[in-house]
Design a protein that fits this description.
Elements lengths: L4 H24 L4 E3 L2 H9 L3 E6 L4 E6 L4 E5 L6 H7 L3 E4 L2 H5 L2 H20 L1 H16 E2 L15 H15 L1 H6 L7 E5 L6 H12 L3 E5 H6 L4 H15 L3 E6 L18 H15 L7 E7 L17 E4 L5 H12 L10 H7 L5 H17 L7 H11 L10 H24 L4 E6 L10 E4 L9 H22 L9 H16 L12 H6 L5 H25 L1 H14 L1 E3 H9 L1
Parallel strand pairs: 1-4, 2-5, 7-10, 7-11, 8-9, 9-10
Antiparallel strand pairs: 2-3, 3-4, 6-8, 12-13, 12-14
The structure holds adenosine-5'-diphosphate and zinc ion (ZN).
C-alpha cells in the first residue's frame, strides 16, 4: 500500500484524536470490566443474563450483565450477531456508548477518521486476510512434544473415555486394521454442555496416541473474510497430512453445520455451507490408512445438520454429560492435587453442593479459591475461600439458596426419572434401562436412557403402548408424589412424544378398534373434516394409558421411593444398581 502525504497527515490526525479521546474515556470510565470468554458470554446470553451490548468493530466488545456487572468479551464480528442478540432480548447499542455521551465533536471526527481508515484497510483486505490466515494456522497446532494431556487428566466421563480409547489403536496402527479391510472411523462427534471436557478429551486422545493435535473452532471459520473458511479447512488438512498421524479437533461445529431451515438456502450462511462442504470433502478424501481422526464438538446437537452425521462423516457420537456427584468428586480431587488445601476441607461435601456444575466450573472453583488464598497469603486454602469462590464462579447466575432449592429440585427430578425407569422395568423385561440420572442430558428424556431391543423389524401395538407408558411414567410419578397441583413442566417433551406415538398408533398404523384401518393422513389431505374423532380417540387412549401407568407406579410404590432415594444420593444409577433395588 502506498501512503501519500495527505493520507499520512490524516492518519496522524486521526491517531492523535483517538489517543486524546481514549485518554479522556479512560479517565472518566475507569470501570471494572470482567473479562468473559466468548463461550461463557454465549451461555449468559442464552440464559438471559445479559442486559446490553455495545456493538462495534473492535476486537473486544463491552456490555453489562443484568446484575450490573460490566464485562468485555471477544467480538465475533459476524453478520448475524446483532440479530442473535436481539432474539435473546439483549439491548444492542450501536457504536460506543461512552463516546456518545462523551465528546460529540471528537466522536464525529473519529467517525470520519474511521471511515478513511476503513477505506484504506478495505483496499488491503485480501492481503491482511492472508496474513491472518498464516498467523492463525501457526498457533493452531500443538505438537506431540508440548505438555502431553492424557486420559488421567480427565476425571469422570468414563463412558466417553472408553469409547475414545478404542481409537488410540486406530491412530497408532492403521495398517493393522487395513489388512482386514476394516473401514476406520473418521469422525467422532462429542456432544454435551459447555465445559464438560470435550476439548480436554480430544487433546487426551492425541496425547495418548502421541500424535499432534490441531484445534480450530467452527466460529473462527465463519469470522474470517468471505471465502477463506473453505481454504482454511483445506490448509488445515494439508498440514495435518504432512504430519502424518494426528487428531484434528473442530470445536463449535454447529457454527458450520447448522440445520438447514426449509429448502431455501437461507438457512445456514453461505459461508458456513461452503466451509462445511470443504470439510466433508476433505474427510471423504482420506484413504483411511492415514491415522487421522477428526473430532468435532458441539453443545447444540439439536441444531446440527444431519448431513454431518452420515456414515463416513461424524458417524460416532459420544455424549459428554455434566458430572454426577462421584465424577465431581474426582474432578475436584484432580484440580486440588497441586494446591495447598487445608485438611479441614471436605471435598465430598463440595461435590454434593455443586450439582449441575460442569468440569470447567469445578476447575474454576478450585482456581478462584487458590487465588483468594494467595491474595491473603494464607497458609492453606480453607473452606472459607471455597465458599467465597463458589459465588464468584456463579456470578451472573441465579443467586439461589443452594441447599434448599436444589434439594427440592433434586427430589422432583429423582421421582420423575424413577417413574420412567420403573415403568420401563415393569412393563417389559427386554427393555434395558442403561442409565438413570438426575443430571440433565442433552437428548432424550431428562436423564433417563433406555435401549429398546432394536433387532426386530416390526413393532407391535403392545411395544408402542409400552413406550407411551414409559414416556408417561415421569409425569405419573410426579402426580403420585407431589399431588395434582404440583406437577411440573418437566414432562413437556415426554408428553410430546407420547402424543406423537399415540397419534401414529391410531391414525397411521390402524391399530385402534374404533377408528379402524383408516389412515388419517390420506383423509386429512383429501380435505374431509374428520379430524375431530381422531383427536378424541388420541386423547382417550392417552388417558387410559396414563391411568394404567399410574397404577403400575402405585403398585410398586416402595420401588419408586427406593429408586428416587438412591438417585438423590448418587445422582445417577447404572442398570445393575436399578436391578439390585428391584430384587429387594
Ligand atoms: P468443553 O470443550 O466441553 O467446553 P473443556 O474441555 O474446554 O470443555 O473444559 C475446560 C476445562 O475444564 C478443562 O481444561 C479442565 O480444566 C476442566 N474440565 C472440564 N471437564 C473436566 C473433567 N472431566 N476432568 C477434569 N477437568 C475438567
Ligand atoms: Zn421425563
Amino acid at each position: 500500500m502506498k501512503i501519500d502525504g495527505k493520507v499520512k497527515l490524516l492518519l496522524v490526525l486521526i491517531i492523535s484524536i483517538a489517543l486524546i479521546s481514549s485518554m479522556y474515556l479512560y479517565k472518566n470510565n475507569n470501570k471494572e470490566y470482567k473479562e468473559l470468554s466468548y463461550k461463557t458470554f454465549l451461555t449468559y446470553v442464552e440464559k438471559d443474563l445479559v442486559d446490553e451490548i455495545e456493538l462495534n468493530d473492535k476486537a473486544k466488545i463491552k456490555g453489562r450483565l443484568k446484575d450490573g456487572q460490566d464485562f468485555i468479551t471477544d467480538n465475533p464480528r459476524t453478520e448475524n450477531f446483532k440479530e442473535y442478540l436481539l432474539l435473546y432480548n439483549v439491548e444492542v447499542l450501536e457504536g460506543d456508548r461512552n463516546l456518545m455521551i462523551g465528546q460529540g465533536i471528537s466522536f464525529t471526527l473519529l467517525l470520519a477518521g474511521i471511515g478513511v481508515l476503513a477505506y484504506l484497510i478495505n483496499k488491503n483486505n485480501s492481503k491482511q486476510a492472508e496474513k491472518e490466515m498464516a498467523t492463525m494456522s501457526k498457533i493452531d497446532a500443538e505438537g506431540s512434544t508440548s505438555n502431553r494431556v492424557t486420559f488421567d487428566d480427565v476425571a469422570g466421563n468414563e463412558e466417553a473415555k472408553d469409547s475414545l480409547r478404542e481409537l488410540i489403536d486406530f491412530i497408532k496402527e492403521p495398517d493393522k486394521y487395513n489388512k482386514y479391510g476394516a473401514r476406520l472411523p473418521r469422525g467422532v462427534l462429542l456432544y454435551g454442555p459447555p465445559g464438560t471436557g470435550k476439548t480436554l478429551l480430544a487433546k487426551a486422545l492425541a496425547g495418548e496416541a502421541n500424535v499432534p493435535f490441531y484445534a480450530v473452532s467452527g466460529s473462527d471459520f465463519i469470522q474470517v473474510y468471505a471465502g477463506l473458511g473453505a481454504s482454511r479447512v483445506r490448509e488445515l488438512f494439508k498440514r495435518a497430512k504432512e504430519d502424518g498421524k494426528s487428531v484434528i479437533f473442530i470445536d463449535e461445529i454447529d457454527a458450520l453445520g447448522k440445520k438447514r431451515k426449509g429448502s431455501s438456502a437461507s438457512g445456514g450462511s453461505e459461508e458456513g455451507d461452503r466451509t462445511l462442504n470443504a470439510l466433508l470433502t476433505e474427510m471423504s478424501g482420506f484413504k483411511g490408512n492415514e491415522g487421522i481422526i477428526v473430532i468435532a464438538a458441539t453443545n447444540r446437537m439439536d441444531t446440527l445438520d444431519e448431513a454431518l452425521l452420515r456414515p463416513g462423516r461424524f458417524d460416532r457420537q459420544i455424549e459428554v454429560s455434566l458430572p454426577d456427584v462421584n465424577a465431581r468428586m474426582a474432578i475436584l480431587k484432580l484440580h486440588s492435587k497441586n494446591k495447598p488445601i487445608s485438611k479441614k476441607v471436605d471435598l465430598k461435601s463440595i461435590a454434593l453442593e455443586t450439582i449441575y456444575f460442569s468440569g470447567a466450573q469445578l476447575e474454576n472453583l478450585m482456581n478462584e479459591s487458590a487465588m483468594l488464598a494467595a491474595k491473603e497469603k494464607a497458609k492453606h486454602i480453607t473452606m472459607d475461600h471455597i465458599n467465597k469462590a463458589y459465588f464468584t464462579v456463579l456470578v451472573g447466575e441465579e443467586k439461589k439458596d443452594r441447599s434448599s432449592i436444589t434439594l427440592e429440585d433434586k427430589k422432583v427430578t429423582a421421582y420423575h426419572e424413577a417413574g420412567h425407569a420403573l415403568v420401563a422395568k415393569k412393563l417389559c423385561k427386554l427393555n434395558r434401562v442403561t442409565k438413570v440420572s438426575i443430571i440433565p442430558s442433552t437428548k432424550g428424556m431428562g436423564g433417563f436412557s433406555l435401549n429398546i431391543p432394536p433387532d426386530r423389524m416390526h413393532q407391535t401395538k403392545k411395544d408402542i403402548m409400552n413406550n407411551i407408558m414409559i414416556a408417561l411414567g415421569g409425569r405419573a410419578a410426579e402426580e403420585i408424589i407431589l399431588g395434582t397441583d404440583n406437577i411440573t413442566t418437566g414432562a413437556s417433551s415426554d408428553l410430546q412424544k407420547a402424543t406423537e406415538m399415540t397419534l401414529s398408533m391410531i391414525g397411521t398404523y390402524g391399530m385402534d378398534e374404533k377408528i379402524g384401518l383408516v389412515n388419517y393422513n390420506v383423509i386429512l389431505n383429501s380435505n374431509l373434516s374428520t379430524g375431530t374423532s381422531l383427536m378424541e380417540r388420541t386423547k382417550e387412549s392417552l388417558e387410559n394409558l396414563y391411568i394404567e401407568t399410574k397404577k403400575i407406579l402405585w403398585d410398586n410404590r416402595k420401588y419408586l421411593d427406593a429408586i428416587a432415594d438412591k438417585l438423590m444420593e448418587k445422582e445417577s444409577l447404572t442398570e445393575e444398581e436399578v436391578n439390585q433395588i428391584l430384587t429387594n
